[in-house]
């Protein structure tokens, strides 16, 4: 077995790192994360998680091609259509596509040349049978950004699979009360806080900007 060459300090520090050129509110919350690796986003029902995922997809689609793989709903569901319109995904229509694929088909899709740089898996428990399957998928697509959603029990992921994915992910984002809080490795100047819907956030938290 041929071993990989061990890297010197110069080899390590001279490697080129490509980052997502986030600006504005996304930069303030998440800085400029590396353009590969796993994001895990979890939250309860009615927390604003689905809207945040679409907002995140739009921001990334300004720079990279994104494929949204909805597994808990269909692309012709009223809620999915309305969310697409609400976030004005038409602004990035050349870089954004959506279709539901089971794991084997999505694996094949992402393996194609010139396939989407970013794959959104909504949600992880509908897609992976176990953590080992997740690890194999992640390793195979190590140069992609994989955004995986999960459910919450309190402030923690609900299932053991979701907890394991959260611990492994580079970017960990908990959504509650229309606020996305980053607990990952790249946090922006404002401490990793992104308000998804201002009016809803203020109502939940009893604040008023006036």
Automatic annotation (TrEMBL):
Pfam families: Rad17. This is AAA+ ATPase domain-containing protein. It comes from Neptunitalea chrysea.
């Amino acid at each position: 077995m041929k071993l990989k060459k061990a890297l010197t300090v110069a080899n390590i520090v001279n490697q080129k790192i490509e980052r997502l050129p986030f600006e504005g509110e996304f930069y303030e919350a998440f800085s400029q994360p590396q353009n590969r690796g796993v994001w895990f986003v979890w939250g309860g029902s009615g927390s604003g998680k689905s809207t945040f995922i679409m907002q995140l997809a739009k921001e990334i689609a300004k720079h990279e091609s994104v494929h949204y793989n909805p597994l808990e709903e269909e692309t012709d569901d009223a809620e999915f259509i309305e969310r697409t319109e609400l976030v004005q995904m038409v602004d990035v229509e050349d870089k954004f596509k959506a279709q539901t694929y089971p794991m084997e088909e999505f694996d094949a899709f992402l393996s194609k040349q010139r396939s989407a740089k970013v794959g959104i898996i909504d949600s992880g428990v509908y897609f992976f049978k176990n953590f080992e399957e997740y690890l194999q998928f992640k390793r195979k697509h190590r140069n992609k950004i994989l955004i995986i959603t999960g459910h919450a029990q309190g402030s923690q992921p609900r299932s053991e699979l979701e907890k394991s994915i959260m611990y492994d992910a580079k970017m960990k984002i908990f959504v509650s009360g229309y606020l996305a809080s980053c607990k990952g490795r790249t946090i922006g100047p404002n401490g990793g806080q992104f308000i998804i819907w201002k009016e809803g956030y203020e109502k939940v938290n009893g604040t008023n900007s006036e």
